[in-house]
Amino acid sequence: QVATVSEPILAVANALANIDVFSSLAELAVRYSYVRPELTEDNRININQGRHPVVERSLVDSSFVPNDTYLSNDDAQLIVLTGPNMSGKSTYLRQVAIIVLLAQIGSFVPVASATIGLVDRVFTRIGAREDLVAGQSTFMVEMVETANILNNAAPRSLIILDEIGRGTSTYDGLSIARAVAEYIHNYPGLGAKTLFATHYHEMVELASFLPRVKNFNVAVIEEAGKVIFLYKILPGGVDKSYGIHVAQLAGLPKSVVYRAREVLVELEEDSGKALAKPSPKGRRRPEEVPQQLLLLGQKSPLLEKLEKLEIDALTPLEAINKLYELQKKAREG
Prior knowledge:
Shape: elongated
Number of helices: 9
Strand content: 15-25%
Radius of gyration: 27 Å
CATH superfamily of the largest domain: P-loop containing nucleotide triphosphate hydrolases
Number of strands: 10
CATH class of the largest domain: Alpha Beta
Number of domains: 3
Mean pLDDT: 83
Strand order of the largest sheet: 6-7-8-4-9-10
Distance between the termini: 99 Å
Low-confidence stretches: 279-297
Structural class: alpha/beta
Largest sheet: 6 strands, mixed
């Protein structure tokens, strides 16, 4: 008997499903102040005070910080977004994609106002994961997904890229990230609207010679050695990732954080020396500079290093190793 009336039953189930979806979207719009977006056929996405519909509902002790977005194939095609970890870059990328998707399925969206130029597809490369079954590393999965985007995206597409190139060495990763950005910008059959989040601060240089690249960053305040995240998207690039500050917030031991700062200073000094070296073609043997006695009242470098030591943050073994290190430098003169 049920089989004889299966078609009407399925039709009723489908109608109830549609009613459930539409009523849920309507309830969300009324309860959380969503507004009706304006859909157009031009190539601009203009979002005013956009919010992430999931993250804003999960916040208990604080309110969500809304952000604007402007993308256009004509003058702001590719946004390079820099900022520290935990500052909200990935949330911002996701909220733009979700707002565009909600608008195109007929839903109201979590914004103050929005004009959405229709997109044909939304491509995303977010997160890090490996495919054990297929024998693909995290970096290989990242490259496969990036290749799919570059081979299938069109001018009407929206591309979301988060940390392209982070799964390999710094120079390889930076080279790939820059080449991908240049390809999206320059390739005649592509030119899609793109949000590109990265920790490679060298990427901000693209805006100096690619006319449709714009730099934005997530604002932070540094006070008393600590970082305060403002979660606000501002024009311009940044030159710091604050990775050690985030590690400190995560609860790493003080000795590890202190040692990380030491290593960072050493690496930055080595990088500066490498940049200052003359090219091999015009290299000359440096003249020996005689070591001079310290002037009266001038502080010894060993004393300065000793004063900067955070004794309370060192374990007994680390303190002994540091003492041997200072003794060795003192004997070397």
